[in-house]
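Can anyone check this?
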Amino acid sequence: MGPLPTPRASAAGAVLAGKIYVAGGITNHGAVNALECYHPFTDVWSKCAPMLEPCAYAACASLGDYLYVMGGALKLDPIATVQRYHPRTNSWCRVASLPFPWFCMTACVHNSRIYLTGGASEGRTITDVRSYDPARDEWRLEPPLPVHVSGHSCVSLTVQHDVGVALAPATQLPVEMMNVNTQRKCIIQ
């Protein structure tokens, strides 16, 4: 894989239609609005339309035909903006904002919803979990995490026919799993 065309740190990324997208991030000059796409079959990076608003420390997820970049920060000031990218038209639009400025959270997709977990807002780490329904263009409050986390991972998985969202700091076990249908929590070791 060749180098990213716009070198930066604290970018967000997701896979959509077999391509890797890297959005936003920060350079020595501040947050950027760059979106770049890696084509693994040709080993080529291409520049896409720039985001509507620059951000670093955002969350990113793909759902349906779209890429979503959620929250993030300009310098260290969190933002609530949610930007949606359509690769077929190479264009961006805004969708329902986050309920509050939020950054350093993580995202995963389950049952046609995007889940955001943990992160930081107003200078502190938080336990919030929210889900986004693109059909309704709205955010819903979900049961909170048991601890304040930032710099963690979130995945959607199925364990013994029990669908849920697993949450954990990137280097920590055990992992907590929440069944999003029953709201029941369990520990995976």
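Reply from J.R.: I decoded it. The radius of gyration is 16 Å.
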